[in-house]
Structures are given as structure tokens and as C-alpha cells.
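C-alpha cells please, single chain.
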Amino acid sequence: MNFVTFHTDSDPTPRLGAVVDGAIVTLPGDMVALCSRGAAGFVAAAKEAAAAPATARIPLDAARLLPVVPRPGKIICLGLNYADHAAEGGNQRPDYPSFFLRGASSLVAHGAAIQRPRVSSHLDFEAELAVVIGRTSRHLSEADALEAVAGYTCFNDATLRDYQRRTAQWTIGKNFDATGALGPWLVPASDLPPGAAGLKIESRLNGTVMQSSNTARMLFPVAETLCLLTEAVTLEPGDVIVMGTPAGVGYARKPPVWMKAGDTIEIEIEGIGVLSNPVENEAQP
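Here you go.
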């Protein structure tokens, strides 16, 4: 069973829900609390949702999904985590992950518009696996790293390439408002292969496949990444780790392909689902 954060037009309060037969059953608490309860918490929540009467179900099309974790404490991203993507940008295979941070204000939900800002037209797409943390963790080992994972979802690390290239640090190009799509839902870790390995990952722009790869090709898999991060950082429930993108991004094409208003970009990961977003221009003042 998959889990969402949502609200409705009649009630703007963010709610936790479970997806049951194309509808949402509201659950107590929020996504961070659910993640912190571990596998047993997901099982209990699924049983509660399955037992809810039909009258308690909200049709998916009557709800507005929010980012799976609306305001993560940390969003830590990896660059150059697929060898083919590193190569298409003229970069060497890294010996250590290129970590960078995103802010929560850059997030956008499934179905909501990714914004092309007023100041740039170089808006690129990046299909990525996102890991949601469920346990406070420091100094993880390969043997226990995956126990810290609550579940997985899709991420589109939409990037303003000209701003990314303005400095040696990628932060500014990766943090424009409404460019980091996260969703549509959380899939518990127990429902996927360990480390979400061996899953097809794809991006489609207006129905055309742009990226197609497999999470088995990540240079730094989930467990190794969590070990490296927790050498330095305490991970906490609700933190999101974004695992990098494969080859096929827009800037590496000739001519480059940039997302523009009117486009639809989809990220699909096997066993998780499809994250879909229209693209709109940022509103003028």
C-alpha cells in the first residue's frame, strides 16, 4: 500500500493518507511520524486503511497531493551518480559522491506545475530515485544502513543549467522555487527490492522517452550513500536523499532540450509509479 500527503479544496490542512483502490483513506498523524514507526507502522496503517468503510474514501481526483514529505528537515542530493550521465557532461567517474542540498521551498507536488522562472529558459529535467529516512541515524554500516530507510518515491531534480554553471557550487541552479517535484506517493521499503536496486527509471517529455536506465547502475547505491553521509551528518525521520540521474538530460543533447510552458514531464520508476508535472512560466508581477 502506498501513502500520500494531501489536502482538499474544502480543507487546506495537510493530511496523511493511504491509497486504496484509487481512493485515499485519511490516517492520523503525518508522513514523518509514519516513517518513524518503521515497517510495523506501515503494516498497521495499511490494515487500518483497508478496514475503512467506502464512505471514508476520498477519490484521488478530489484530493490535491502535496510533496510526500512537505517540508523535509534535509534534502540531500547526489550529482554524477550514474557513469553515463557523468560522461555526457564531460566529467570523470567520481571517487566520492558530489553532495549538494535543496531547500524545502523548491519542492512541488505531483500534478502541480514546475515553474520556468522569469530569469532563465534553461530548465532541464532529471529523473531520480528519492529515499525517505525513517530512523535517526549516525555512523551507519553496510549491514544496517537500509534499516534507516522508510520508503522510496520519485524525484525530478529540475535544474536551471545556466545558474548551475555560474559558480563551482550547484546550489543556486538547483533551488529555484517549484522545481523539485517529489511524489506521487511513498512506497514502503519492504515493498521494493533492498536499496530499490534493479528498478527501471525513465523520464518522458511530452510522451517522448528522454532518459531510460536502471537503478542498478548507480555508482553509489543507497546503502553505501547512507554510510558515507552518516560519517558526517545525522539523518532524521523525514529527511530525503535524492540519488542522482542517468544520461539523457536536456543540456547534453544537440541542440539542447529545455522544458517550456505547456510541456508535461513524467518520471517513472518501476514499482513506484509515475510523477507527472506540467510546466508553466513564473507569473509576472
